[in-house]
Fold this sequence. Notes:
The protein is mostly helical. It folds into two domains: 109 residues, no CATH class; 129 residues, no CATH class. The chain contains twelve helices and no strands. The longest helix has 23 residues. It starts with 8 loop residues before the first helix and ends with a helix.
Amino acid sequence: MSDIAGQTTQQLFNKWRSGDAQAGQVMAQRFSDWYYAISASRLGDRNCRTALERACQRFAQGVASVTEAKQLPIWAHGIIAEEIQAAGGRVSGGDHPNALTGQRSPTELLQQVAPSLTHQELRLLALSFDADATLADVKSAADANGGYPLAVLQARYALKRVLVSQCGVAFTEVPDKANLDWGPLPLYEGGRMSLGKEEQAFETWMLSDLKLCKDIAEFAAFALALRGGAYKKYQTEQAAAPAPAPKAAAPAPKAPVSEPAPSGGGSSKLPMIIGALVIAMIVVAAVLLLR
């Protein structure tokens, strides 16, 4: 089996430019997943659909104009950033059910599992996702639990674990230990990064770490609900403990996500490969819209 899926985006791009159609399809899948993570995090699953589809189409139509691999991430990021801006820009928060939540309200799911988290975890999540709370407040609350950002990352994964066990949310990225290399993640999901270069740098970096990209994509609905105030009442230090949770409903079935079919053998003719890439991008975009 080829190890092409484990190659960097730059390696895939160079192979595609040299006539490798399979590398082109893997590259298309990677950029589609990346676009979905960014647009869902910024706009919400339902609001992002038009921006996502247009970005995928523009990528497929214009990627042949990029001649150097190092230019590709910046060029590609410019496309999704423009489409998100055209869609109204980053939303402050909200309730966005999707296939991963079983079309259930993310806010209601968060409130359902709150009794299974410690008050310190609830408080850290409430402060971290509240743009009105200062970063100093977040760091102060994190000091007794390993410091910032480790404590916030750990609380985030504790939340993901109870959403899996009690609500059947089919997360795939739920590590036992938080990855400190992902330290900027709470700033990004909490809407605390300065717009422009800082956010662009983080989103471009996401493309180099597919696990981070997937983690952000699958948690996006819950991040938006938290930014919308789902845990706001737990911000105070002496907040009352949450009431016992009702009996969890049966886990919702995970929506199937199909992969685009391989294009077959490679071709030495770049126009033919570009056509395959266009098809791949459109198919992947359609799949993502059904999540």
